[in-house]
Amino acid sequence: MEVYLDNSATTRPYEEAAKAVYDTMLSCYANPSSLHRMGKTAEDLLEDCRKVIASTVYGTPDEIYFTSGGTESDNLALIGYCMANRRKGNRIITQRTEHAAVLETFAYLEQNGFEVVYVDITPLGTPDMAMLASSINEQTLLLSFMYVNNENGAIFPIADIAALAKAAKCALHVDAVQAYGKLPINVRTLGADLLSISSHKIHGPNGVGALWVKKGTRLSSIVFGGKQEKGMRSGTENLAGIAGFAKAAEIKFANLDSDAQKMSELKERLISNLRGKIENVVVNSPEDSVCSVANISFPGVKSEVLLHVLESNGIYVSTGSACNSKKNKFSYVLSEMKLRADVIDSAIRFSLSAFNTQDEIDYVCKVLEREIPLLRKIMR
Amino acid sequence: MNRIVLVRYGEIILKGMNRPVFESLLVKNIKKALKDECPMSIHWAQATIYIEPEDDSCVESIVEKLKRVFGIVSIVVAYPAAKDIDELEQTLADNFSAELSAASTFKVIAKRSDKTFHMTSPQICEEIGGRLLERFPNLSVDVHSPEVNVYVEIRETGYVHLDRISGAGGMPSGSNGKAMLLLSGGIDSPVAGYMIGKRGVQLEAIHFFSYPYTSDRAKDKVLKLGKIIAGYTGSLKVHIVPFTDIQLQIRDKCPEEHLTLVMRRFMMQISQRIAEKRGCSALITGESIGQVASQTMGALAVTDDAVTMPVFRPLIGMDKEEIVEISRKIDTYETSILPYEDCCTVFTPRHPSTKPKLAKVLLSQNQLDIERLIDEAVEGTEIVEV
Predict the structure, then answer these.
(1) Burial of residue A160 (number of CB atoms within 10 Å: 0-12, 13-18, 19+)
(2) Which residues pair with B284 in a beta bridge?
(3) What backbone torsions phi and psi does residue B139 show, to the nearest 5 degrees?
(4) Structural domain boundaries in chain B
(5) Which chain A residues contact residue B218 at CB under 8 A?
(6) CATH T-level assignment (fold) for domain B4-166
(7) Which of A357, B1, B5, B205 is the most buried (most CB within 10 A)?
(8) In terms of CATH architecture, what is A3-11+256-378?
(9) In chain B, which residues have their Cβ closer than 8 Å to the Cβ of A326?
(10) CA distance A12 to A360
(11) Closest CA to B30 of B63, B77, B3, B76
(12) pTM as predicted
């Protein structure tokens, strides 16, 4: 049996999305900027896709800018906003468990003269709101907070953060890459000014994403050239990718509630089965975390060894986040949650999609029930 | 007309009656190293190998590959010119004006194998030297220790070139038998392989694979290192030995302070078995005295006892910094430090014995069915040619 439980890293594309990529590449390959009829057809398809993506977050099409994915959306939002609005203030605030795409961009902005504040998180994985409130001053230009953490699934209180931003008249960027397609997002009521989303976390192709920019928000470009995407993102549009993204979004958002329901049940089943059958199981995801992520530790078993044991049984998971596991041995997210060393050392991230089934979850539990005691004996 | 690459070799000139054997081996190795390059003619005469590529644009990549062929002392890229003093001078000025403008002293060395040319070697030196002095007022002649040597050769056509590029040195690969390298994926073992390979020893490598305690990525890394080593020694066969079972058994049955030593003994015994099968006459390890607990003198004695074959440890007296320096030079360092975890730490004792008693370690190992475990590991070995 092959069980893919690494959906927070990337998801298996919908067949329809893959087909949309294929069809667009073969039948709608003209440059949307070309003046001829084929170019016009391509441009029409691009604008149809923009409408689809806008509707998934309750935005308008002119607020959607296509990018190469979540990382670029975060870069454009943060660098683009800070550079265009420098006069308004110099302090920018985020928190310590953001994705590297935000943290590294903050480090870059710090090198370029911005004052950077990192808010701590609580053991529940969400930001210390008191510290955030006291960090905001008159010089504060921008807040950037993720909607859902990619490693532990913690859901951030974006409405509360937005209220602080509004009171201080500073902008709010939300990295919604892990929330998109799992939680309903309405940019009209959310209170954010910028919102990053990505295609490959919702069964679309890799290499495409979008940034929603509230109408009237000033933004500088970080990529220069032919002024596509209203000058915000030069470079010939990745039309095939965008078509695949839109197709995936159509399917995902038609099933948003039922998929979330299904994932919640699977997650619950996984956690309660493991707790019932294996001694000393620590669940690192908070109670009310997102339906797709279950971060679980089996103290005494090194997570990398367990990952390969599961892999040899056809089960694919991550230790920490996939983007991070190449450089650091231990998860900075779990470290920031101040978990015990043996818990961090043995943490596995199971991340679900609506493609997963009860049978798969039962199989995973059965394998873990068999392997964990053996591994604990070896690693005594 | 195309440039020509001249290769000079050192030590093998001293090999007396065997010299032609070494020469043809070196030419064979060069041909192998250059097999993916453009068509070329290769011949040798008077301790020089002449490589004449049909396409001038592949000269740079040929030189890069030659730098990794053991047995080559120096490499020269020569520019052809008509057998005419004006042409020779012009070719020098066209191609080497940067070097000649930057230097303050030089010397011309002429070689005339075409004796029909109207000037003798000393005459050529004098004429070309005089013209270069006029062209480059910064230069003066120093025949004893010039900054730049200018070579003019008159053969079937004329050639000019400056100083030589250093080669890898050593002896042609395959001229000194074959040995089995224990390749772990760390910094030391590729360096050890390089050093023995440099002496003309043909290599095969062996890697112990403890899935799931070491991963496919760690195996890939070892194969990548093998490929870099193969760039110097020609092709390389890597024997991947399944080792998990043995480690689990050791973990289960042996006292904790002997875990690493018993494991090392198994590794040596399996290596010897495979080495014998493959016609190797020695083992090579990257050990250095005292670097870790399993490399104290006492520990090395316990490991040595496991085999009868000679074990070469070329890094035995080197510091880590010295080893790192070589690994950077031979391009294995960046690959060696890739972080894919080697979860062998699972099998590392907290307090390893640093002054082990052989008899006690033997008692520990003898609790296991040694012959059967070795047989199974050898049986399950996979060979990858990189």
Answers:
(1) middle
(2) B181, B312
(3) -90, 145
(4) 4-166, 178-385
(5) none
(6) VC0802-like (3.30.2130)
(7) B205
(8) Alpha-Beta Complex (3.90)
(9) 339
(10) 16
(11) B63
(12) 0.82
Strand partners, B214: B342
**Which regions of chain B are under pLDDT 50?**
none
Burial class (CB in 10 A: 0-12, 13-18, 19+), B372: exposed
**Residues B128-175: tens digit of each pLDDT:** 999 999 999 999 999 999 999 999 989 888 999 998 888 999 999 988
Separation of alpha carbons A200 and A204, rounded Å: 5
**Looking at the domain A15-254, which fold is it?**
Aspartate Aminotransferase; domain 2 (3.40.640)
- Helical residues (DSSP H) of A152-296, grouped into ranges: 158-168, 187-190, 239-254, 256-277
Question: How far does CA B39 lie from the centroid of its chain?
Answer: 25
| Token representation of residue B328 | 């950077």
Closest by alpha carbon to B362, among B313, B312, B301, B273?
Answer: B301
pLDDT surpasses 60 at A205: yes
DSSP string, A51-103: HHHHHHTT--GGGEEEESSHHHHHHHHHHHHHHHTGGG-SEEEEETTS-HHHH
Q: Tens of pLDDT along B220-260? A: 999 999 999 998 988 899 999 999 999 999 988 999 889 99
B205, B241, B202: which is closest to B224 by C-alpha? B205
Q: Is A49 a catalytic residue?
A: no
Instruction: Record the tokens describing residue B305, joined without a space.
Output: 């006892």
> How much is the average pLDDT of A182-202?
97
Question: How far apart, in whole angstroms, are the C-alpha atoms of residue A376 and residue A327?
Answer: 26
Interface test with B, best of A301, A302, A308 (most B CBs within 10 A): A308
Q: How confident is the model at residue A326 (pLDDT cuts 50, 70, 90)?
A: very low
Q: Return the H-helix or E-strand segment holding B382.
A: strand B382-385
Q: What is the pLDDT of residues A98-118, one digit of tens each?
A: 999 999 999 999 999 999 999
Residue type, B240: I
Mutation test of the interface with chain A: which of B211, B246, B253, B254, choosing the one with the most A Cβ atoms within 10 A?
Answer: B211
Tokens at A142, concatenated: 């921008």
Retrieve residue B284's tokens: 């090579």
| Extents of the domains making up chain A | 3-11+256-378, 15-254
Structure tokens at A239: 């039309």
At B150 the three-state DSSP class reads strand
**Position B51, amino acid:** I
Q: How far is A305 from chain B (nearest CA, A)?
A: 5
The pLDDT assigned to A206 comes to: 98
Ramachandran class of B70: left when φ > 0, alpha when ψ lies in -120 to 50, beta otherwise: beta
Task: Mark out the alpha helices in B183-243 (DSSP H runs).
Answer: 188-198, 216-233
Name the DSSP letter for residue B13. G
- DSSP-assigned letter for residue B294: G
User: What is residue A324's predicted lDDT score, i.e. its pLDDT?
Assistant: 46
**In the predicted structure, residue A322 carries a pLDDT above the cut 60:** no
Distance from CA of A312 to the nearest CA of B (A): 8
**Closest residue to B341, CB basis, from A304, A309, A378:** A304
- Distance from A216 to chain B by nearest Cα, in Å? 46
Which residues of chain A from 313 to 342 reach within 8 Å of chain B, CB to CB? Answer: 326-327, 329
**pLDDT at position A327 over 60:** no
Q: Both tokens of residue B144?
A: 């004893």
Q: Does domain B178-385 have CATH number 3.40.50.2000?
A: no
